Amino acid sequence: MEGENYTLSEFIILGFSDLNDVQLLFFTTFLMIYLCTLGGNIFIIWVTLVDIRLYTPMYFFLRNLAFLDICYTTTNVPQMMVHLLSKKKSISYGGCVAQLFAFLFFVGVECLLLAAMAYDRYIAICKPLRYSVIMNKVLYSQLAASCWTGGFLNSVLHTVLTFRLPFCGNNEINYFFCDIPPLLILSCGDTSVNELVLLIVGVFIGWAPFLAIILSYLYIISTILWIRSSEGRQKAFSTCASHLVIVLLYYGSSIFTYVRPISSYSLAKDRLISVLYSVVTPMLNPIIYTLRNKDIRKALRAVGEKVATFKLHFPR
Q1: Residue 204 DSSP class
Q2: What is the Cα–Cα distance from 79 to 85, expressed in whole angstroms?
Q3: Half-sphere exposure of residue 206, counting CA atoms within 13 Å on the CB side?
Q4: Does residue 175 or residue 106 have the better pLDDT?
């Protein structure tokens, strides 16, 4: 009966079950991406902790981003790999609630954190003489705390609104993890409130940080143009371009996924878009943010020298 609320004990995650011929290929690809994500982000956390010269706002935010990427890829990628090789592709109702909450939490934090990082770069490049005064420990700690708080509130709101909806018998999710769009489509209740909240919150979590980042980089680029050294301009532009690639990829796919009417969703196609921001971007972040980074290279050399000195004084 339509409109009757059934008590579901589990959901079936269809994932990529319609692509049986490439299940093993997908498993191998996602496994390599996941291992690269873990390795790259753990490396960032480690190298920025062992060298005291990297105890700066920029690397403080970078450590937060690396930890964040480890957490939110771990909420869905391991389970997705298990489902690629397993005949049973189910997740418990409680597990689905937990996965949605965790994923939305970490995605929301990253949207806000990328904006905080752009603001830090804006102050560093456009107001270098006042950088240490403006971007002090209190401010950058408050910015990071605000990002985590905002992500938490965003997740609580959407998780509560999503699972207050009735699900009438059909428990097959045509997606590779529990996310808002497939759950709203699966529900047999009125989702208009959910869609409205998605659009409104999307302005604050998605569009506002994205526009703030673009504005920050416009100011940064205008400042870079005044740099007399062509080599200095080239390096600055290269760094900005790398960061903007991640921003456009992450925000573009996130906004496309969440900030549009449910009636326009095509889950078979949208699941590929979600792979960009939930699987690929966390792997690219360590590469982009450490690419040709002199501070990271210096830190590695310092660690190498310490290891060499240790071996010299304490030979086997």
Answers
A1: I
A2: 10
A3: 21
A4: 106
Q: Are 249 and 276 in contact (CB under 8 A)?
A: yes
8 Å CB contact between 108 and 198: no
pLDDT at 126: 86
- The string of DSSP letters for 182-243 reads HHHHH--S--HHHHHHHHHHHIIIIIHHHHHHHHHHHHHHHHHTT-S-HHHHHHHHHHHHHH
CB 111 within 8 A of CB 205: yes
Give buried/exposed letters for 292-309 (b at 16+ CB in 10 A, else e).
Answer: eeebbeebeeeeeeeeee
First-to-final CA distance of the chain: 76
Whether pLDDT at 1 is above 50: no
| Counts for the chain of helices (H) and strands (E), in that order | 13, 3
* Contact predicate 105/152, CB 8 Å: yes
Cβ proximity of 67 and 105 under 8 Å = no
What is the phi/psi pair of residue 90, to 5°?
Answer: -110, 160
CB neighbour class for 36 (10 Å; exposed up to 12, middle 13-18, buried from 19)? middle
238: left (phi over 0), alpha (psi -120 to 50) or beta: alpha
Distance separating alpha carbons of residues 161 and 142, to the nearest angstrom: 28
Which two three-digit tokens encode residue 61?
Answer: 């935010």
C-beta separation of 12 from 172 below 8 A: yes
Single-letter code of the amino acid located at 50: V
This prediction's pTM: 0.87
CA dist 106 and 108 (Å) reads 5
Segments of 75-164 assigned E as strands: 90-92
Beta bridge partners, 13, equal: 173
With tokens 């006042």, the residue in question is: 130
Token pair belonging to 283 = 């792997």
Cα–Cα distance for residue pair 277/197, rounded to 1 Å: 21
The H or E element that residue 11 is part of is: strand 10-13
Residue 63: both structure tokens together: 């450590």
